[in-house]
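re the bet — no i am not wrong, look at it urself. input seq straight from the record:
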Amino acid sequence: MSDFLTIYNKGWAKFPGVKPLSDVHVKAIFSSIKPILDDRLLWYAYYKDEPIAFFLMLPEINPIIKKLNGKLNLIGKLRFAYYLWRGICKKSFGFVFGVVPEFQGKGAEAAIIKAYADVALKPGFPYSYLEMNWIGDFNHAMVHMLEELGSKLIKTHITYRLLFDKSKEFKRHKRLS
């Protein structure tokens, strides 16, 4: 968890409105998702033993929830665990992705996704589909990287802004490279 904290606070907390995470917060996040975590979907990159990037995915559990009709009582939880163990989930989705600033734009992003793809595309890997979520229209570098990896862009999240004071000048967020 300390590697996650290091990468997140260096890579994400630099953006306006994003606060650094504490140890307590990270433990709470990982504790809440622990029932569905799959180690095969948690990827970290290191340079000289220092954490520089993470690519954390989760199984898409909606097929299981559908089978349970949304009921997560004791029997539902047991059935949930059984279906998860049986590999009902064939799709994973990108939960969070981050690279420390010193390594952004230097190929670390593509390298960690390529390393995952090399494993995920082998026969017998339980997840046959990966969905990357929340790639903003302003994040041209990420969109370009996914295109270069041969991914299919299904949706793009577009950011809209409403200016309450029409006399203020609109300035689009700077392009992330």
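see?? The chain is about 35% helix and 15% strand. told u. also Residues 74-86 form the longest helix (13 residues). so pay up
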